[in-house]
What we know:
61 residues; mainly alpha; L-serine dehydratase/L-threonine deaminase; TrpB-like_PALP_sf
Amino acid sequence: MACERFLDDHCLLVEPACGAGLAAAYENAPELENFSNILVVVCGGATSTINQLRELRKANP
């Protein structure tokens, strides 16, 4: 899950909605291959906990 990877990489927890943009960047989405610079807006996880993210991943393998 991109949110957990970002947490591991940057010690910052982000919300699942933010994870969608991160996933595209982390997975090198083909839609992005023609761009040389990619900007991902990262929002904080003020309402998320790591346990919530893990439960979400379990529910959606």
